Amino acid sequence: MPALFSGLASPVACALGLTELEQRLAAHAPSVAFQQQETRIAQSRLTQRQAESGWRLFGSVSGGRTHEIATADSTRSYSNHGYTVGASYPLLGSRSQQRLREVEAQQETVAAGARAALALDDARTRLRRAYVALWQAREQKRLAEAFLSDAVQARQVLGERQKAGLVLPSDAQTAQSWYTLAENRRQAALRSEQVLLAELSLLTGLSPSGLEPLEPPRLAADLKRPANSETTATALARLGLEAEQARIRAQKAPGIEAALTVSVSNSRESWASDQTGRAVQAGINFSLPFELGRLRSAVAEESAARLEQARLGYDLARQQSTQGRSEAEAAYVSALADTEYAREQEAAAARAVTERRLRRALIAGDVQEQLYRARFNYYQAAQQRLEQWARLQNAAVDLARFGYPLVPTPLPLPDRMASTLQEAPAAAPSLAARTQPVAQTAAGLAVTSGAYLWNSHSTLADPDAAVMAWQAAGISRILLGLDGSQLAEAELPVRLQALLDTAHARGVKVSLLLGDADWMTLQERPRLLALIRQLAPLPFDGLNLDLEVEQSKGWPEEHAALRQAWLDTLRAAAAVSPWPLAATFHHRHLDSPDLADALRAAGVQEACVMIFSSRRATVLATERKAFQSLAALPYSLVVSAEPALPVSESFATLGRQQIATLAQALLRQRGAAAPALYFQTWQDYQGLK
Asked: Cα–Cα distances in Å, from 553 out to 558, 561, 609?
């Protein structure tokens, strides 16, 4: 299958990821290089201390000539010379001092290594934060540019309507300030981008141009897995305590300096006749202060104080680590909740933009100003979602410093938000052609609705007509499938891009839909991953895997093994997908008590629960079960409109009114948190009366 996608080769495949950049830190980050030299110095000092400990050689050489008065009338002259060689070994306090210097050098070497690890940890955190901030700045720039795309036209329209008395001057001035704000933010984002590229370049040794392209960051912390018990900073404090303990053990007989010496001396004197002499000596030399007791008492007091200080420092470091870990956990959980809220606010604001665009086509009056305000509200909501995304990423970075692993679960950048701010193409259907779709949308379902579109040939052939039909039916989410013949088309990327651009411009989200039970096998799974990688350049809003584990050979006898293969496949797909991952599955899986944790661990961000029943009570009961089983994991319900199914399993013969009644019931049951309602399939739902 990869051969079919040669035209879809993605630049992301060659992009630098965070892992590759982190691997360059040790060789290029200035702070790390500085600490590495400190470690090198400490190792050299240790070698010096080891070399100067123990036995030492000593020696001396002497010589001279002597003149003596022998009698009143004569003198005597003679010469003498000699040498002494020997070895000495320190004892008692002297040996203790040597050992103490050696122990201190050993501990300093270990501490220097720990400080180097701490510097690398700091540099890694700095790199990750800069990486996230760079993407945030770039997305802020994209959002601002998208919002500013209609600035010239908006100012012209507002000016004309103000002159005509249709817009108050204060309202026009307020609208003008929106564009000023966006331009200021764009300029700030440009400056931030340059600063952050320079910082990444400094940390990695790559030029700014060598940092392109970069993969989006996907940082998530796994709170289910226990953190490492000791941080680098705590380990450094522990090493300080161990150093003091080793120092105390090395101190013996303080104040008493002593040495064992062994020497050989040889001398020769020349006068009347040569005389030589040789001596071998061994001895012990020592010295000690008069107030030895006072000295030893002071040394013991100092050692006790240093030990207690080190113990207190270690306890303080552990307390700070525990407190910091708790605060980081709380910040991460809070960021998760706030990110979900920001996502909902952004989705609501996007829907408002779409609704205002539709109203502008049908209604006279101030609908244009309302659209401008809706676009600004969306710009603000998207900006807030971007800030919350960055906050969540940084919270994961903070947790990683406390030993929590960064898992491969993708938390993708909420990109493609800028497409919501792009105006729809100028060429638009006539008013009469639009009236019916808008009327149906206004009277549409009470909950968000979507559809599975397995046969997408006609959709790709005429994207405008397809998107209009979706909007006419109140569909705001489409799961788009592709077959083998389409995958073989060289123009497929162009067709998909055209569809996605059209859908995004009109507020419809399109996810890639892939479904084949064979992909769960180890032999076929690489084909799925290759397909995801090759389609990665396209701006889909998500990836939905409908793998139908129940259709696999061995079901239900090999239920446990097949379920694990399903989860492994989801996890592998999430690791390579640039889009949020959703999983479609039968409602029987809700009976598994660990379903929510298993799906989260596999990287799933939305569960699509199939309940093929036309009985409202059954669907509502399944929704309640999903709410309890999925434990705050976003979920949707999938019902059928397929005419081939029995009337008890499909809404095909019951029509849209029954579906509308079901949507109202879901809204009453769950309120604003009511799940989206998907239909199998789009063509069947479109044909309902």
From this structure: 9, 11, 22
What is the C-alpha to C-alpha distance for residues 414 and 407, in angstroms, rounded to an integer? 19
At position 667, the amino acid (one-letter code) is L
With b meaning 16 or more CB within 10 Å and e meaning fewer, what string describes 116-139? bbbbbbbbbebbbbbbbbbbbbbb
* Type of residue at 422: Q
Q: State the helix-helix crossing angle for 616-629 and 656-670, rounded to 10 degrees.
A: 40
Length of the chain: 689
> DSSP for 619-682?
HHHHHHHHHHHTTT--EEEEEE--TTS-TTT-STTT-HHHHHHHHHHHHHHHGGGPPEEEEE-H
Closest CA to 429 of 487, 473, 468, 385: 468
- End-to-end CA gap in the chain: 40
The DSSP element (H or E) to which 280 belongs, if any, is: strand 275-287
Tokens of 296: 């030893």
Nearest C-alpha neighbor of 132 from the set 192, 185, 221: 192
DSSP state of 424: P
Cis peptide bond upstream of 556, omega within 30: yes
Long-range contacts made by residues 273-282, C-beta under 8 angstroms, separation at least 24?
277/82, 281/86
CA distance 56 to 262: 11
The string of DSSP letters for 351-363 reads: HHHHHHHHHHTT-
Instruction: Tell the residue number behind the tokens 């929590």, with chain if given.
Output: 404
Pairing, β 542-545 against β 477-481: unpaired
pLDDT at 655 over 90: no
**Can you state the angle between helices 292-360 and 431-442, rounded to 10 degrees?**
130
Here the tokens at position 250 are 């090395």
Q: For residue 425, what pLDDT band results from cuts at 50, 70 and 90?
A: very low
Give the torsion through C-alpha atoms of 139, 144, 148, 149, to 10 deg. 0
Q: Which residue in this structure is represented by tokens 């909740």?
A: 337
DSSP code string of 189-246: HHHHHHHHHHHHHHHH---GGGG-SBPPP---B-TTSPPPS--HHHHHHHHHHHHHHH
Contact present, 310 and 342 (Cβ < 8 Å): no
Q: Is 510:481 a contact under the CB 8 Å cutoff?
A: no
Is the CB of residue 523 less than 8 Å from the CB of residue 492?
no
Is the CA virtual torsion 27, 31, 33, 39 positive or negative?
negative
Q: Say how far apart CA 357 and CA 372 lie, in whole Å.
A: 10
- Beta bridge mates, 10: none
pLDDT digits (tens, 9 = 90+) for 470-525: 988 889 999 999 988 887 787 888 889 989 988 988 889 999 999 888 888 888 89
Could you give the strand order of the β-sheet that contains 257-270, starting from the edge strand earlier in sequence? Answer: 56-69, 75-91, 257-270, 275-287
Which helix (H) or strand (E) element contains residue 313? helix 292-360
Tell me the C-alpha to C-alpha distance, in Å, between residue 30 and each of 33, 205, 498, 646. Answer: 5, 10, 47, 70
Each residue of 139-151: pLDDT tens digit?
A: 899 889 988 888 8
- d(CA 613, CA 607) in angstroms, rounded, equals 18
**For the whole prediction, is pTM greater than 0.90?**
no
Half-sphere exposure of 18 (CA within 13 A, CB side): 21
Pairing status of strand 676-680 against strand 542-545: unpaired
Domains, the chain, with CATH or none: 447-689 (3.20.20.80)
Beta carbons of 56 and 259 less than 8 angstroms apart:
no
